[in-house]
Write a structure and sequence with these properties.
CATH topology of the largest domain: Rossmann fold
Strand order of the largest sheet: 2-1-11-10-12-13-14-15-16
Number of domains: 2
Distance between the termini: 53 Å
CATH class of the largest domain: Alpha Beta
Bound molecules: 5'-O-[(S)-ethoxy(hydroxy)phosphoryl]adenosine
Number of helices: 18
Number of strands: 27
Length: about 575
């Protein structure tokens, strides 16, 4: 039995108060996600239930009950409070997927501070722009990542504390650095959780746009109302499930559905902090008897590549529900998963900005492979005409995906960038920035993004950020960055560059430039290919025609270049 009845039944008379009631929340009450994810579950009699099973490289393993995560959240919260960190302060979590990342998230929320998770593979420049924009006061990190923080700390006046969770005492701590070990700290049993309200800020996730610096998406504690119910109905999480969300909490899926979803429902979750390999992933599912699995199309395509033999080596009979998010889930992947696991991946669509699932294939719903499904109850989703911004009534006609604002987990603004936030609304609709069609049965079908952002393996990369970083390389005179098609990642980053006088085109230089970007930004943003050009195509006003280069990569008709010029 799944948690919901038929889609039609569920959508009738839907009201978010269903979620509020289940969580025992009333308008005006205190609502703190840290408390909901640990203390409340303990109060419900599940203190000794396993909350978290963690595995790292080299077979390291840790396990925590709900009482353990409650105490750890208190202990980290109390430590931060002792440093003088208070509600509203931004605390960055810059770690691999180690337990301190998950437990630190609870601790930060419990004191009413704002959790700012950042992907640990970010290079110093990616880190710098995000910490600078958020005026972050403390960063919690690991020894292996502290070098990147040291490089930029002097130009971050608001950064007061660099907290290292695994300092071994071998090398002296440097300026602003302090060591904190959860293992050695006295567990804090009684703790005054900060009384955050619905609109108190909770999480700040950075997302990349086509132009300008990355934007800090501000979420609030009330987002729980949406995250809780979508987890229950879409992921179908139930009391005896063992849940695995493969996303990194540096990105929104890893927090909304990799921390808040399972723990606010009192469900056991497991995390694997090692690189990808089909054998390791299947082995992990088999070992922990994973029942519900939330993953991403790139991972699924990589598993497809590994073939059916890899599946047959493991006992995956525990699996009962599969879901996917982050990029287009192609029909073949759905059909394949049905064949090899006996279960179809249920596609879901949402964004950092929406905070929770917006479009979905519900358990029990007839899946049309390749479609993103239908709006979650309470969500009004439409396709707008790109010119008039009026909803298109005709089926199968492409336009802009838009939603009627007002769902609980919607972002509240972009940090220090209200203007860009406001620009996302037209005619009373929130514009997602994606294009799709709706068929005669109300199913949404993804067409593409409405901007130049590159979605590589489910991670958004800004061409602007990569172009700017390229210009910092001594050999690069001009740069243009576009997506290039890729079998597994769907898109990868490709750069076109012209060189400064005195530099010669060579494979060695290409590697050097790639590495430069990997270190500065991240492995995701690193161009997989660099093409040297004598001149980049430009408009009459001198702007680089990125779209022309994009069309070339995708074998598309370049069409009338005069319109491209106008567009730019
Ligand atoms: C894309 C991730 C096709 C889309 C939760 C969106 C998808 C962006 C799907 C958000 C899907 C997400 N099918 N495309 N099912 N889900 N996307 O902010 O372009 O990292 O706008 O949030 O990913 O990415 P973000």
């Amino acid at each position: 039995m799944s948690n919901i009845g038929s889609y039609e039944e569920q959508i009738k008379d839907f009201d978010w108060s269903i979620s509020e009631k289940e969580l025992g929340y009333k308008d005006g009450d205190v609502i703190n996600i840290g408390w909901y994810c640990s203390d409340r579950i303990c109060e419900m009699g599940k203190a000794d239930k396993t909350a978290f099973i963690w595995e790292g490289f080299g077979g390291q393993k840790k396990q925590y009950t709900f009482n353990d995560i409650r105490l750890a959240g208190n202990t980290i919260g109390s430590y931060l409070r002792g440093l003088g960190i208070k509600d509203g302060d931004r605390v960055c979590l810059f770690m691999d997927r180690i337990p301190e990342l998950y437990l630190g998230f609870l601790g930060v929320l419990k004191i009413g501070a704002i959790a700012q998770p950042l992907f640990s593979a970010f290079g110093d420049e990616s880190l710098h722009v995000r910490l600078e924009n958020a005026e972050t006061r403390a960063i919690i990190t690991q020894r292996k990542h502290v070098k990147k923080v040291r490089k930029i700390r002097d130009s971050l006046p608001h950064l007061e504390f660099i907290i290292i969770v695994d300092h071994d005492g071998k090398k002296p701590l440097q300026e602003k650095e302090i060591a904190f070990s959860l293992k050695d700290a006295d567990p804090v049993e009684e703790f005054d959780i900060f009384p955050t309200k619905a609109e108190s800020p909770s999480v700040l996730h950075y997302t990349s746009g086509t132009t300008g610096q990355p934007k800090g998406v501000k979420h609030v504690h009330y987002s729980l109302i949406g995250q809780y119910l979508t987890s229950k109905w879409v992921l179908d999480l139930q009391d005896d499930d063992i849940y695995w969300c493969t996303a990194d909490p540096g990105w929104v899926t890893g927090t909304s559905y990799g921390i808040i979803a399972p723990w606010s429902l009192g469900v056991t979750q497991c995390v694997l902090d090692t690189g990808f390999s089909a054998d390791a992933w299947y082995g992990f599912i088999a070992k922990h008897r994973v029942t519900v699995w939330y993953s991403a199309p790139t991972a699924i395509r990589s598993l497809m590549k590994a073939g059916e033999e890899a599946v047959l080596k493991h006992d995956l009979s525990s699996l009962r529900h599969l879901a996917s998010v982050g990029e287009p889930l192609n029909a073949e992947a759905v059909i394949w998963s049905e064949k090899v696991f006996g279960l179809a991946f249920h596609d879901t669509y949402w964004q950092t900005e929406t905070g929770a699932i917006m479009l979905t294939n519900f358990p029990g719903m007839n899946i049309k492979p390749g479609s993103m499904g239908k709006p979650f109850p309470g969500i009004t989703g439409v396709i707008l005409d790109p010119e008039t911004h009026e909803p298109i009534q005709e089926p199968n006609k492409p336009g802009l995906i838009a939603f009627k604002p007002g769902w609980p987990s919607m972002m509240r603004t972009y940090w220090n960038n209200e203007e860009t936030f406001q620009s996302k609304f037209v005619n009373g609709w929130y514009l997602s920035g994606d294009r799709a069609t709706i068929d005669q049965d109300g199913y949404f079908w993804f067409v593409g993004r409405d901007d130049d952002v590159i979605n590589t393996g489910g991670h958004l990369v800004s061409p602007f950020e990569v172009e700017s970083a390229l210009l910092e390389h001594e050999a690069v005179a001009e740069s243009a960055v576009v997506a290039k098609p890729d079998d597994v990642n769907m898109e990868v980053v490709k750069a076109f560059v012209t060189l400064k006088p005195g530099f010669n085109q060579s494979a060695e230089l290409e590697l050097k430039i790639m590495n430069f970007i990997r270190k500065k930004l991240s492995p995701l943003a690193m161009p997989q290919e660099i093409e040297y050009m004598d001149n980049l195509p430009k408009t009459r006003s001198g702007k680089i025609m990125r779209r022309l280069l994009h069309a070339k990569e995708w074998g598309e008709d370049i069409g009338d270049t005069s319109t491209l010029e106008d567009d730019d």
